[in-house]
Amino acid sequence: MYIAILAITFSCQGEDSSLEKEMYQKLQSIKTADKADEPIAESDSLALSLVDYYEHQGSKLKLAEAYYYAGRVFYERRDFTKSLHYYKKAVAALPHCDTPDLEGVIYSQIGYVFSCQDLSEEAVTAFKQSYQFCKNQKDTLGMIYGLRDWGKELGDHGKYNEARRLLLESIQLAKAKKIDYLYYGNKSNLAGLYCKLQDYPKAKAEINEALTCVYGPDSSGVLATAASIYMTIGMVDSAEYYSKQLLKIGTIYARCSANERLAEIALKRGQAKEALHYLTVYKKLNDSINETKNTETVAKINALYNYQRQEQENAELRESNQRIYFYLTVACFVILTLAFIFIAVYLYYTKHKDTKSLRSEILEQAKKWQQTQEEKALSEERKKQIQECDICKKFNNFADNSMTFAPNITDKDWQELEQVINTVCPRFTERLENLCDISATERKICLLRKIDIAPVKVANLLNKSKQAISSTRERLYEKSFGQKGSPTQWDDYLQSL
Question: In angstroms, rounded to a whole number, what is the distance separating the alpha carbons of residues 447 and 460?
Answer without folding.
Answer: 15
